[in-house]
Amino acid sequence: MKHLIGDKSFYKRLIAVALPIVVQQLITSSVQLVDNIMVGSLGELAIDSVAAVNQLYFIVILVTFGVLGGAGVYTAQYFGSKDFDKLKQTFRFKMIAALIIVFLSFIILSFFGSFFISLFTDNQEIISGGMSYLKIVRFSMIPWAFSVSISFTFREIGITKPLLRISLITILTNTLLNYLLIFGNFGFPQLGIEGAAIATLISRALEASLFVILAIKKGSVFNTKVKDMFKINPVVLKAIIIMALPLMLNEILWSTGQTVFIEAYSTRGENAYAAANITATISQLVFVIFGGMSTGIAVMVGNTLGENKLEQARANAKKLIFASVVTAFFMGVILFILSYFIIDIYNVLDETKAYAAFNIRINAIIIPIVAFNIAMYFTLRAGGDTRSTLIMDSGYMWVIQVPTIFLLSRVTDLPITMLFLIVQLLEIPKMGFAYARYKKGNWIRNLSNSEKLT
Hints:
Blueprint: H1 8-40, H2 44-81, H3 84-117, H4 124-137, H5 141-156, H6 161-183, H7 193-218, H8 234-266, H9 270-287, H10 289-306, H11 310-338, H12 350-382, H13 386-411, H14 416-425, H15 427-440
């Protein structure tokens, strides 16, 4: 048991790296909950309209995360090895890749947005409301590309406190603008869900501006001049692409798999669809630990591998995985308690509340298992074992979970609660496969010292 518990200095460093990210994401999740409630006060159709667009946005976000994650593996290790020239090249790759992804997504959603929304519902009011929201919020993807490229890089080099301050400013701005523009308070026009879209766009633009300023002031190890943006060594570029492709494919498959789950739940009616979205929003209040722990793993495993301290990286990984599971257990207890009263803040039908409460309690029970799997995923990724992450994450999802839920939603009359329960229970077998890939040790590699990158 001793090898699973770190000393005081270990947890001090973990808290310094992870806590600002946890607090940042907790604030974000809390405000998303407030936004959800504000939009929800307009009715369940409004919730479903915004949720359908956000599900599409979710896919764009995860695909971007996958590509940036491939570069981030090298960012963390180059920082550990103090190879700042190559670190700058990983940042340039992130900026270029993120802008390409969001530009393509902008074009696709501009022309085919209605079609994609109709995959979740055939209700014309929801489709119309979703398009009203999408036509504005799609522009927020462009400043977001700058923000995510810069914030990911700061995380990977262990600088997290400034990110919290920027998120706090952005979130407070978004909440205030939602209050003014959704309901028309203090003389502002009452714009409903279009007001929510405008608030998101303005707050994203502000966020990007603050991140650019932060990069100029405190990102000297990675920031770059515009004229040097395309200066990436072909060998480094090839290595990043090889690392990024499995992660990008994983995120595409995982996000589309989540979309299949949502579509399966929606077959049980609009109440079930709304309940699924409420479940996700409230559960995120405690799922924020995943963001903090993933950052902790990137820094305390990835940086250590880059320093060529391979055994220390292995020891750190064990302690971080254990800490993730223990923390998740206590967060699950909090979520279970919240499920008994937090649903009442929504202006939805009692049936919707009952579905959401059940699903949230399932999440509360299963969260330590999910935490274990996610910690395994980021540990494997920290050492560049992206093949294993692809197999254990989206590979498992599409071979086991997606076919199961798709068939059950079509050939049975099981309610959404049972469909949700089955999907979550299928996280348990994944633990064995994830642990087997971890034990093989293919992830214990110093990529920054690889002969292929010299």
